[in-house]
Amino acid sequence: MNTVAIFGVGLIGGSFALALRKAGFTGRIIGVSSPETIRRALDLGVVDEGLPSREAAQTADLLYLAQPISRILELLAELDPWVRPEALITDVGSTKSTIVERAVGTISRCQFLGGHPMAGREQRGVEAAEADLFQGRPYVLTPRAPAELETSMVHDFTGWIDKIGAFRLVLDAAEHDRVVAYTSHLPQLASTAIAALLEGRAEPQTRVFGPALVDATRLALSSFDIWGDILITNQQSVQTALQSYIAKLTELSRVLDLDPSRMREHFERAAKFAAKVRDSS
Amino acid sequence: MNTVAIFGVGLIGGSFALALRKAGFTGRIIGVSSPETIRRALDLGVVDEGLPSREAAQTADLLYLAQPISRILELLAELDPWVRPEALITDVGSTKSTIVERAVGTISRCQFLGGHPMAGREQRGVEAAEADLFQGRPYVLTPRAPAELETSMVHDFTGWIDKIGAFRLVLDAAEHDRVVAYTSHLPQLASTAIAALLEGRAEPQTRVFGPALVDATRLALSSFDIWGDILITNQQSVQTALQSYIAKLTELSRVLDLDPSRMREHFERAAKFAAKVRDSS
Predict the structure, then answer these.
(1) B154-165: b (≥16 Cβ within 10 Å) or e
(2) Is A152 exposed, middle or buried, given 0-12, 13-18 or 19+ CB atoms closer than 10 A?
(3) B188 interaction partners in chain A (CB closer than 8 Å)
(4) In chain B, which residues have their Cβ closer than 8 Å to the Cβ of A189?
(5) CATH class for domain B3-171?
(6) Considering the entire predicted model, what is its pTM?
(7) How high is the ipTM of this complex?
């Protein structure tokens, strides 16, 4: 793997470039983004050069698609005629079934492997990129069959995933989407719902609060430009998670009504899970 | 104000003691807690000495009640015969109506003023105490009438609130409880519900997640020993907030079903509120 093309030099794409460099990658890193983003990425030393999609695809060993899902889907429809047969295309989309299916239908001249690095920050854009973003974080890969992980290009790529400090998890794309509906998309909607509920209520809410509200509304800062695609491409699993959550809140409300002391067991279950999340993160 | 007695030398009580010292308080700081906690508080230099409730109440100018709500309610039933007439009793309970009503019925020999410093940390206990905990945070006071704020003991006390870097807000106790049901108790239950929902589901949930789940489950670490009292003493407002939240989630679910693009307006409202919270915190 000598030449990497990052399509979409934002937080994730930019961080992957910086992480590769820090881990010792000495090849060429090409950025494919708007002229404005490329200028900033060059200034920050995140990429070596900017190229249009076609030229980047024609030279890269690894095509790293780090845009919003809808743009990844469009790109997958364009890339095939341009790529080198020994190249690997991978992506970082937050949902995997739609992307993997699209790739099956469009990419035939080189290998495609779906991926999802589960890292992020409150800030966005190439300015927020950092070499350690993936350190200790899961990096999910979603091959359609185990053999897809055994090609030499994938070995090379997964070696770099290890070197940038992420830990690899292999999941079926559909299973990935069902799980992240609960662990990522539900927390997003839970936060959006709190903040949307409080917006427009009387003034004191924005002054009378503690650190809890800052935490609870952090995800609510997220942009719909990214989340619209996620929700649309995982609609069914998100609905299932949302209904389970509404059912759990309704249960808590009923318990609070009938016998508040019985809330203890729910708090204890919750604290147990929260501790597990911290043990493994 | 020469002698302060901190009843309950945990995160909040301990931090108030440290904050007073840092702000230049040169009087005596007495701790009232379990022998084990007093030993740790003395080791950490948080208090000057430990005393039983009665002795502490008999000497203090300021009685600072920083225990769980149920213990504050018990103490309010005991303190009156012990206190000096020129003393001020204040508390830090997270709900105010029940406490203020109890004080009206029990405290007649000195002044009582309800308070709620809206500060906190993931950690608990005197070891987590820090002098800067209240810096830039709201400190709500809930007098029954404005004149209560004009006594010389309250002037002295509020002067120290200013010096420790908090900003004072004056609210009616019932209004305070209605507001925090939305800004504090709802975020708590939203987090508890997510974590309780995920606990017990299949294994991948505790590995396949990003920073979002860490944020979303932070409040779920909170102890029911504190929250049981809060929920019981604010049951009606908490139920109202919880029902509004369930209604908002149900609305989001319906929008997602009918026309996902219309989720944009909810995300934008939410992001607007989240930004306001950050502007004022």
Answers:
(1) beebbebbeebb
(2) exposed
(3) 212
(4) 249, 252
(5) alpha beta
(6) 0.91
(7) 0.91
